[in-house]
Amino acid sequence: MSSIERFIVIVLFDGVDLLDVTGPPEVFALLQRELDDAAGYRVVLAAETMDPVTTFAGVRVLPDTTFHEVAKRSIDTLMVPGSVEVDSERRIRALADPTVVNWVKTLAGRTRRIASVCVGAHILAAAGLLDGRRATTHWSTAQQLAAENPSIEVDADPIFIRDREVWTGAGISACLDLSLALVADDFGEAAALRVARQLVMYLKRPSGQSQFSVPMEPVSTTRRMDELRHYITRNIAESLTVATLATHARVSERQLTRIFKTELGMTPATYIEAARVEVARNQLESTDDTLERIASTCGFNTTDTLVRAFRRKLNTTPTEYRNRFRSSV
In angstroms, rounded to a whole number, what is the distance separating the alpha carbons of residues 55 and 33? Predict the structure, then answer.
């Protein structure tokens, strides 16, 4: 294993998401503990000045150095977190402060590898670093990123995307997956797995892994929809037709479909399949049940149906998913 110490700079600015800043250093510090030699990463937080930075969470963070100072050095990895503003209607919009954008553009010229965390992709985009590339960001701002940057191929689904020397990560907690991927790229899969175990993460998720799951779908706004979702979960192995759900909810089939589209933005069939995939994921992670049994208990009936649903929803197969996430690993 290489004994090279890699210099990582994390960009710091007012309003930044706290976990974007603190998550990656935790991963890199755990790697240091797992390595057999003293090598690993040296992580610094850099800001425009040495004044304390107030994060979105209200927690103040002290920079280690300034942008001006790190601009004099060669940087292995530049990590760019993000920030958002939320209006009175709880609509989220990613921000890209021009001063931060200019410094990121400057530092990128001295960097081997660049990685954005969550909505930090908007800062990379504003700096012109994502032009002509495929990129991801948090699902809540993906449409904004695509609308403001037509030259970027935005894919809101993956947890992270690597396009040559530029990496982009999705949701806030996905900073851990992105950081583990960087570790694997530098020190190998075995080292990343050891760190993942310390983080109580079953395994590093592949870049193609979807950032969405049933619990992350929009919250129900009516008791009727909430009850329908619970009913689906309780009866996941049964034949959950639109007619069955409509009867349970005491509405017409047309009205039921309209309710799902209005509240969850999807058809009943799409939601039911997502719910079944979620239950199957849990069983694959925590049991030794065969694919045939899991398909049956989750309402897929056949393994072929189960496999097709996993490919549609997660871009992987049940077997590949189990190999990566099984809790007994």
Answer: 28
